[in-house]
C-alpha cells in the first residue's frame, strides 16, 4: 500500500522565477525541497567551491591541525585507520594524499571486514605500535571506539578521530549523556558543542576538511587539493548522504571533475564498467561505480580499492578495475540468492506480522547483509536487520525507513548487543546467537510505529498535464541535479491516464513501452522500467485479461490509471521527442 501526498508549499514563485531566471514551476520545485530564502536559493542553484564552509569551525579542528603540524615537523610516523566501505576508502585516500603533500611520513591500514570487523580494534592498534607508529588518525570511524582508543593512549600513542557517525550516549534520568572517546582530538560535527553549520557530511568530506585546513595552516595553496573533491562526491553519493547544502556543492562540483578526471584508477573503472564519461552522474556512482568500489571490502579487501585510487599508471589501474568489476559481478549473484532466502523466511514464518523484520541467514556472506536488508526494506517497506554467522558471533546490518530511528532503537536494546553503531537509517551490530530471537522480540515490543508509518509515502510535487512535457522542461529540470537522497527527482502526477497501447521490450522482458493519453487529450510515449509483471497483473485484476491482451496488441482496451512520472527525452536517429517515465500507478 502507498500513501500519495500532493505537496502544497507556498511562496512567491513569480518573483523567485524572475529573480533567478527560472520558471515559476521550477521555483515551486525548489520550495518543495525546503530551500527557502534568497541566500539558500542562490546557494542551491549556483553554489560552488567558494561557498563551502570553513573546516576550522569544527570542534577540535585547530587542536588536530596543531598536532599534525608538530608530528610532521618532528618526522613522526602517522598511520590512517580507515574503513572498508566506499566512504572509508575514499576518506583514507584523501588523508593520505593531503598528509603526504604536507610532508608527513604517512601510511594506512584498513580493517578486514571479516577478521577485524568495523572500525578500530586492539589488533589494529597493536599492529601500528609494533610498526613504530606514533600517531593514529581515524576516518569514517573512531567515535564509538572509546575502549580501543584508551588502550592506544596507554601505549603512548597520539590519536586523532575524524568521523561522521552518531556519538554514543547513555541515558541518565531521561537525559542523553554523550560518550566521547579519549582521543587527543575528536572531529565529528555531530558531537555536542561543534559549531559547524552543516552536520550531514560523510567521512570523506570531513577528511577533506582536515587536509584543507592543514594545507592552509602550512602556508600552502589549498586549491591544490581541489581534485580530491571528486572523491568526496563519490563517497557522499556512495554512502547515501543527503544531497543538500554543502553535500550538494561537493557532488555537483565533484561530478564535473569526474567527467574530466586524471585519476588512472577512476578512468579505468569508468571505462571497464561502460559508463559514458561525459554523461556520468550521481546514478552511476550509486549503482555502477560505487558497488565496484565497495566490492573489494565485501568479498576481498578494501585495500584493493585504495590501490586502485592510488594507481600510478594505466596498466596497474586496468587490472585492479577489472578485478573489482569481477568481484562485484560475483557479489550480485550471491546477493540475489540471499534476497530470495530472506523473502522466503519473511513469508513462510509469519514474520510479516512484525513491524521490524529481524532476519537470520546464517549462511549469508556477512558483507552482503546490508545490501540484502536494503532490498528487503524496499519489498516490504519496514525496518530490516539481516543477521548472519561470523567467526565469533552473529553479525548484521540494518536498513530503516523514515519513521524509525534505527540507531536510537538499537540503543534501547544494547544489553543484548556486543557492539553496534550507525545512524537513523542504517546500522551495524554484533550479538550472541542466543540473543537473536530476544532482539527481534524486544525491537517489536518497543516499536511505536503506526500502520500509516508502514505505508510507503509517495510525495508528489505537482500535477502536470502532458502538454507541458517538453525538451525545454527537461533541460530546466537539470538545474535541480544532482539527484539522490535528500534531493530526489521531482515527482509529477496525472489522473485518469488512458492506456492506448503497449508492448514489452528488453532482453529480460522487463520494460513496458506505452502510448498514453491524459485528460487534456495529449498523447505521450511512456516507459515503465520496474515491476512490469506486477503492473500487468494489476490491470488484469481491474479490467480483465481481454483488455490487457488488446492493449499489448496495439489496441485500446479501455483501461486507465493515475500515474506519477518524470519527464524525459527520447533521442533516436537524431530525432528528439519528449516522453515520460512512470514511477508509480494506482
Strand order, sheet with most strands: 3-2-4-5-8
What does the overall shape look like?
A: globular
Sheet of most strands: 5 strands, parallel
Query: What percent strand?
Result: 15-25%
Number of strands: 20
**What is the radius of gyration?**
25 Å
* Poorly predicted tracts of residues: none
Helices and strands: which structural class?
Answer: alpha/beta
Helix fraction by DSSP (H/I, runs of at least 4): 40-55%
Distance between the termini: 10 Å
Mean pLDDT over the full residue set = 94
- Can you count the helices? 20
Give descriptors for this structure.
single chain, 586 residues, alpha/beta, five-stranded parallel beta sheet, five-stranded mixed beta sheet, 20 helices, 40% helix, globular
Can you offer a commentary on this structure?
It is a single chain. By secondary structure, the chain is α/β, with parallel strands linked by helices. About 40% of the residues lie in helices and about 20% in strands. It has helices spanning about 15-20, 25-30, 40-45, 60-75, 85-100, 120-130, 145-155, 205-215, 230-240, 245-260, 265-270, 280-300, 305-310, 315-350, 370-380, 405-410, 435-445, 470-475, 530-545, 545-550; strands at about 1-5, 75-80, 105-110, 135-140, 160, 170, 175-180, 185, 355-360, 385-390, 395-400, 415-420, 425-430, 455-460, 460-465, 490-505, 510-515, 525-530, 560-570, 575-585. The protein has a 5-stranded parallel β-sheet with strand order 3-2-4-5-8, sandwiched between helices. Strands 9-10-11-13-12 form a 5-stranded mixed β-sheet, with helices on both faces. Strands 16-17-18-20-19 form a 5-stranded mixed barrel. Strand 2, helix 5 (about 85-100) and strand 3 (about 105-110) form a beta-alpha-beta unit. Helix 5 packs parallel to helix 8 (about 205-215), helix 13 (about 305-310) packs antiparallel against helix 14 (about 315-350) and helix 14 packs across helix 15. It is globular and about 80 Å long. The model has no long low-confidence stretch (mean pLDDT about 95).
Amino acid at each position: 500500500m502507498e500513501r500519495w501526498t500532493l505537496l502544497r508549499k507556498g511562496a512567491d514563485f513569480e518573483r523567485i522565477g524572475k529573480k533567478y531566471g527560472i520558471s515559476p514551476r521550477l521555483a515551486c520545485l525548489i520550495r518543495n525541497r525546503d530551500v527557502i530564502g534568497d541566500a539558500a536559493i542562490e546557494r542551491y542553484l549556483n553554489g560552488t567551491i567558494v561557498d563551502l564552509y570553513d573546516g576550522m569551525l569544527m570542534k577540535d579542528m585547530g587542536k588536530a591541525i596543531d598536532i599534525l603540524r608538530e608530528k610532521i615537523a618532528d618526522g613522526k610516523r602517522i598511520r590512517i585507520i580507515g574503513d572498508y566501505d566506499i566512504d572509508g576508502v575514499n576518506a583514507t585516500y584523501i588523508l593520505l594524499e593531503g598528509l603526504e603533500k604536507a610532508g608527513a611520513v604517512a601510511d594506512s591500514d584498513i580493517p578486514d571486514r571479516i577478521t577485524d570487523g568495523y572500525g578500530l580494534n586492539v589488533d589494529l592498534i597493536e599492529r601500528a605500535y609494533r610498526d613504530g607508529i606514533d600517531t593514529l588518525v581515524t576516518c569514517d570511524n573512531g567515535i564509538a571506539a572509546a575502549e580501543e582508543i584508551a588502550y592506544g593512549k596507554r601505549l603512548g600513542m597520539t590519536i586523532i578521530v575524524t568521523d561522521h557517525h552518531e556519538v554514543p550516549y547513555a541515558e541518565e534520568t531521561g537525559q542523553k549523556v554523550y560518550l566521547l572517546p579519549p582521543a587527543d582530538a575528536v572531529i565529528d560535527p555531530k558531537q555536542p558543542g561543534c559549531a559547524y553549520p552543516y552536520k550531514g557530511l560523510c567521512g570523506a568530506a570531513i577528511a577533506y576538511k582536515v587536509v584543507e585546513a592543514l594545507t592552509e595552516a602550512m602556508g600552502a595553496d589549498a586549491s591544490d587539493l581541489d581534485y580530491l573533491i571528486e572523491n568526496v562526491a563519490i563517497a557522499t553519493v556512495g554512502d547515501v548522504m543527503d544531497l543538500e547544502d554543502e553535500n550538494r556543492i561537493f557532488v555537483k562540483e565533484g561530478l564535473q571533475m569526474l567527467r574530466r578526471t586524471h585519476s588512472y584508477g577512476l578512468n579505468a573503472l569508468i571505462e571497464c564498467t561502460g559508463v559514458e564519461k561525459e554523461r556520468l552522474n550521481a546514478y552511476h556512482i550509486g549503482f555502477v561505480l560505487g558497488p565496484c568500489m565497495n566490492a573489494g571490502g565485501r568479498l576481498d579487501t578494501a585495500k584493493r580499492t585504495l590501490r586502485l585510487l592510488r594507481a600510478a599508471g594505466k596498466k596497474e589501474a586496468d587490472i585492479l578495475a577489472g578485478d573489482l568489476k569481477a568481484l562485484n559481478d560475483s557479489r550480485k549473484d550471491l546477493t540475489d540468492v540471499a534476497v530470495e532466502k530472506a523473502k522466503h523466511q519473511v513469508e513462510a514464518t509469519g514474520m510479516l506480522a512484525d513491524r521490524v523484520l529481524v532476519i537470520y541467514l546464517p549462511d549469508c556472506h556477512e558483507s552482503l547483509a546490508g545490501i540484502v536488508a536494503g532490498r528487503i526494506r524496499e519489498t516490504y517497506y519496514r525496518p530490516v536487520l539481516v543477521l548472519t554467522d561470523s567467526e565469533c558471533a552473529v553479525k548484521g546490518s540494518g536498513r530503516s525507513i523514515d519513521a524509525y530511528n534505527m540507531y536510537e532503537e538499537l540503543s534501547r536494546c544494547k544489553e543484548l548487543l556486543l557492539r553496534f553503531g550507525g545512524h537513523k537509517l542504517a546500522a551495524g551490530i554484533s550479538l550472541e546467537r542466543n540473543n537473536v530471537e530476544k532482539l527481534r522480540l524486544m525491537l517489536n515490543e518497543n516499536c511505536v510505529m503506526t500502520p500509516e508509518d508502514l505505508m510507503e509515502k509517495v510525495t508528489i510535487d505537482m500535477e502536470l498535464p502532458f502538454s507541458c512535457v517538453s525538451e525545454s522542461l527537461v533541460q530546466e529540470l537539470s538545474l535541480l541535479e544532482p539527484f539522490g537522497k535528500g534531493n530526489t527527482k521531482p515527482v509529477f502526477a496525472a489522473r485518469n491516464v488512458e492506456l492506448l497501447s503497449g508492448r514489452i521490450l528488453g532482453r529480460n522482458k522487463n520494460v513496458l513501452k506505452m502510448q498514453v493519453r491524459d485528460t487534456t487529450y495529449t498523447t505521450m510515449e511512456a516507459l515503465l522500467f520496474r515491476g512490469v509483471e506486477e503492473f500487468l497483473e494489476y490491470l488484469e485484476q481491474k479490467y480483465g485479461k481481454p483488455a490487457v491482451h488488446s492493449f499489448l496488441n496495439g489496441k485500446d482496451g479501455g483501461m486507465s490509471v493515475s500515474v506519477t512520472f518524470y519527464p524525459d527525452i527520447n533521442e533516436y536517429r537524431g530525432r528528439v521527442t519528449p516522453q515520460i517515465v512512470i514511477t508509480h500507478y494506482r
